[in-house]
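hey
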């Protein structure tokens, strides 16, 4: 039986991942003959990088590269590549976790009154290992996490009361008692107001402003009590959560607005709480917590517009954290569809393992595409550098022919050797190794 010839066009991350997994099953050589055609002298596509030999082998690439901690497929692939690479333990970037180091500290820039102010974020580490086991949280679990974060942020911000007039245990008991009377048709407002008045009567210490966290705490507590399966929730349960959150946001903006103009910590907490509440309300109102979740049904609007639709201030929707979400995918000016952005934002923030992000310890070419090349070549994949795709012949919906042009030829008909060592690490040069080429 003749082998099927497979042409991989280009050497970007998609192409290399395809080549790697296509050759990862036993006996693949009996079925396929795989060739990678790459324009120029190096692999990498958008992630290409090179070493400038004339400038002390400095790394030259497109920008700062890292993997986020929820990149399970990417980490799983690179863990396999590094395991197969089998470098000596003392060699540079010998293991995958030598090549990627945890990174949890980030600084955004906030433009305020003509000044650029640093906005620091330090994400907590966890015990997970990226690429290893563990399912992503469900949409409902994510909603509960958001409420927990919001509650914690509110309680630790200096604008919140120095002490509470009712213990959480007493508040929870009161909420549970009132919740026992919540029927399927009872309005959420009735339940919520019953909770508030019951607490005030119990503590006998003045107006509702003494317990501003009641709305948010009640929403968080009620959400935790609901079944893990959102299809088992009643309509009244969801209406109650939305009502409580809207009341909390109204109180928050009424009481924090003026102070937030003067105190940086309060202004930023107000932005984050506004965003958290708006996301939670939007997920409930747009039925994004009921499985199977179709995140992309709300892609008809930009994420910023979706947030404002569900009550967020424009200042919050235009804040540095939201701007970053567009910058990550190079869509600062056109924006990102609400469902797409919400989906990757929730996974970014809640699905990471170990650390929020992992920073590469060399250029992307050295860290990813050098190892890909060495492993695939050792497996028997053929690489044709200096080959350009000039035309694809289409027949119906399939590619029937590929016309490939040759940019340069290697001396003596040999195979081009694209890497050279920098302090023991195989690297791509920032320009071709001309001494290997005819008329170089």
């Amino acid at each position: 039986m003749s082998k099927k010839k497979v042409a991989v066009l280009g050497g970007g991350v998609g192409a290399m991942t395809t080549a790697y997994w296509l050759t990862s099953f036993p006996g693949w050589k009996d079925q396929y003959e795989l060739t990678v055609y790459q324009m120029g002298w190096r692999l990498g596509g958008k992630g290409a990088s090179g070493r400038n030999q004339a400038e002390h082998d400095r790394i030259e690439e497109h920008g700062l590269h890292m993997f986020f901690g929820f990149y399970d497929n990417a980490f799983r692939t690179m863990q396999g590549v590094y395991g197969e690479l089998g470098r000596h333990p003392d060699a540079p970037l010998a293991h995958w976790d030598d090549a990627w180091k945890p990174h949890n500290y980030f600084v955004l820039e906030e433009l305020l009154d003509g000044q650029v102010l640093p906005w620091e974020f330090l994400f907590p580490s966890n015990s997970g290992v990226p690429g290893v086991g563990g399912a992503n949280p469900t949409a409902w679990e994510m909603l509960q996490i958001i409420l927990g974060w919001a509650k914690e942020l509110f309680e630790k911000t200096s604008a919140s009361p120095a002490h509470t007039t009712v213990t959480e245990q007493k508040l929870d008991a009161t909420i549970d008692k009132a919740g026992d009377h919540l029927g399927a048709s009872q309005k959420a407002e009735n339940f919520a107001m019953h909770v508030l008045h019951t607490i005030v009567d119990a503590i006998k210490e003045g107006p509702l402003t003494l317990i501003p966290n009641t709305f948010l705490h009640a929403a968080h507590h009620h959400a935790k009590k609901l079944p893990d399966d959102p299809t088992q929730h009643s309509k009244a349960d969801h209406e109650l959560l939305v009502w409580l959150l809207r009341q909390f946001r109204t109180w928050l903006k009424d009481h924090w607005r003026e102070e937030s103009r003067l105190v940086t910590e309060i202004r930023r907490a107000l932005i984050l709480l506004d965003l958290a509440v708006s996301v939670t309300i939007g997920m409930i109102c747009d039925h994004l917590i009921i499985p199977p979740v179709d995140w992309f049904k709300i892609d008809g609007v930009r994420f910023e517009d979706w947030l404002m639709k569900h009550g967020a201030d424009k200042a919050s929707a235009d804040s540095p954290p939201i701007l970053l979400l567009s910058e990550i995918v190079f869509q600062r000016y056109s924006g990102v569809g609400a469902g797409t952005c919400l989906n990757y934002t929730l996974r970014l923030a809640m699905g990471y393992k170990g650390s929020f992000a992992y920073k590469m310890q060399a250029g992307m070419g050295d860290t990813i595409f050098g190892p890909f090349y060495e492993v695939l070549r050792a497996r028997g994949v053929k690489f044709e550098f200096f080959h350009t795709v000039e035309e694809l012949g289409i027949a119906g919906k399939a590619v029937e022919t590929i016309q490939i042009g040759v940019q340069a030829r290697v001396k003596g008909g040999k195979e081009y050797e694209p890497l050279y060592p920098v302090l023991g690490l195989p690297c791509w040069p920032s320009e071709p190794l001309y001494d290997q080429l005819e008329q170089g």
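Confidence is low (pLDDT under 50) at residues 160-165, 203-210. The longest strand covers residues 387-395.
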